[in-house]
Input
Amino acid sequence: MPAPKNTFKQALSQGKRQIGCWMSFADGQLAEIMGTCGFDWLVIDGEHAPNDIRSIRDQLMALAASSSHPVVRVPVGETWMIKQVLDAGAQTVLVPIVESADQARELVRACHYPPKGVRGVGATAARATMFGSVSEYIQTADQEVCLLVQVENRAGMAALDEILQVEGIDGVFIGPADLSTDMGHQGNSAHAEVREVIADAITRIKAAGIAPGILGTTDEASQAYADMGAQFLAVGIDVMVLARNARDLAAKWKAV
Output
């Protein structure tokens, strides 16, 4: 039996728009709830949320029965971290702060078994193979791994065209908060100068035949990014969704 088909990777290759949401609670039960909401993809955030490999694994388990595809963002692009989340069952990995083609090439190698890459061959005892029951996993896993790299500062933007030439990258995700801050606008991703850079980057990514992605935390931002051509578009963060709705509910009834 081969590795499961990565439907998210397949959708990106076919040019289909995928609507997603960030998950920052680092909790399996909340991930299970998010999995019932109808998003095409959900990010398990290992960079800014209080996750470790066990909580990432638990959220992957919680989403196993969901039609929402889990994307695991590692804290940093270290080979050993990528190996751990792949062995835990992730098939799509998002790596922050990619600034050069050389770095991107090393990430591709981290996602693939030898001789193409350097991923350790130990998944037989891991969740990725359902503990040895996926008999042809080692032979077929490489083609189902989806690598998304984040370009989110001026250095990354300067190297974007070279990064786009690296074989094995499935998507480039623009980080608007980091980018705007690095550009001197302190998290103001709606600034006209930032929006111009984002729009240009999305155009270049699409022209290279690679899927562009981004996160919008307001309807206005999400619509702007959709209009620019973002293909895998996250439209919210679970913590912010809860906080906003709870605050609105409290304010509504306290005013009665």
Observations:
- The chain has a mean pLDDT of 97.
- Strands lie at 18-23, 41-45, 69-73, 92-95, 146-151, 171-174, 211-215, 232-237.
